[in-house]
User: What shape does this take?
Amino acid sequence: MPKSVPFAPIFALLAPGGALLALLTISLFPRLRPLHRFIVPVGAGLGFLGVLFSPMEPSWPILLSRWQPLRLFGNFPALAPDRLVWPLALSLSGAVLSAALVQMGRLPRHPPFLGAAALGMLSCGLLALWGENLLTIILAWAVFDLAWGTGMVAFGLSPARILWRMGGGMVAIILLWVSGLVLEGTDTGSIWSLMVSPQAGIEFLFFFAALVRLGVYPFPSVLPVEGERNHPLGSVLFLEPILAWSLLVRIFGQARLPLPAWPWLEWFAVGTFIIGGLLALTAPDGARSVQWAGLSAIGGILWAGIRATDAPQAAAIWLIGGTLWTLGISLLYLGRGWERPSPWWIGAGIGTLALAFTPLLGGASAPLIGWARWVGFFLGQALLVAALLRDVLRPSAGEESGGVWLDIARAAGLGIPTVLMVVVVLLIPGLAGPALQDWRPSAPGWPALAVWILGIVVGSVLFRALPLVQKGRGGMTALHTILKLDWAYDLVAGGLARGAGLISAVADVAEGAGAVLWALAVFLLILVVVLGL
Assistant: This one.
């Protein structure tokens, strides 16, 4: 009897895609353009429902097409909507739905292309999370980058900065491509799937691809942050790291590749943990510190997984941490600042608690050894807490628009990630399937918990003392500029431009007036080589 195709995962992919096509269609008709504010929430909501009900159906692979663009991979685009990455898929769809609902209840309206980018990122993000093989993931990552770039254009970001970040995505895709080449030459064969275990030795390629996707320091992190963050859909542009969390969970939790044993990798994560907090504290204003606070939390989660004793334990840490990070950064971005009479700051406060908790995930079964690690954990936690407080307690951007329906939309948008954060994280051990059944979260040891609490206290004190530190604003601005590394990227871009100019000038000479001389020189060189002169 042939297997029936699961409906919910396919519906979760097609619903945002259909909404995207509807959004582009009504943009051609001026009278229908006011409807575009409803299409994004409807598409995101239907996609969320598809993800929500997908565990109720069989999780066998789904063939999407018999189109085979690259014989290298010996496979077709296919889905594997297994329960292992279901929490990440639910957090992605919930975060997009949350942003769309809050956007409905807030003015001014968002740029039309921003809604299209959010829907495209949701559909391609789910495809990347559920990709059954490398071919599917590569295609999903490529289209995801195009949707992300469209959102950046809607924000008015300069093309040069957009190309820098999209270039990082291209590097990650190339790393996956090279891993396919390596697998082609092993006994695994060309039909390698993420559902089975390949030979060890290629985990470093996947890990580097994940690091680039995470945007860890010093890889460029180009994100638009408005002064008052008027467009909640902009939070979707922060969600690219979920692709990396999913890849790490699949590779180390499902394929069971061994964790890379690189001593420098741990310090790389610690540096991201600490420098992200410094960048957030030295940012020009509190509204622009959210992306750096998220970067610091990424470093803490990455470090927690690296310190795990085995691959399944690391995958479980990254699964829980990635889920908390996705929902927490969305709630943090949607916040409007501190306003005592208003209840809307509560969502951002819950997101702050979630991100502040994430570095503690690794303390349960991988205790810190050595004074340098303890100091790094303390400094990173203190700077992360100060950065989070700077964002959530910044001056309010103003009162929200009035109206019962607008209030309901905003409340639903802030409530969905909060409920998911509590329910999904508590139920992850039972929802992730048999792949992670050999590891369960446990309470962290007292030393790690004590240092974590001390970091929270010191971070709170640092936040309170920040106005005094900011009197020397010039020094903080200089430190932020140095750590941000835009100057280094500009130097590299300038060097590449000059090199391209030199090559162009040589080509003009070779193809123009100097063509005869170059032809004569090449002829004489061949003559010398042939005659042995």
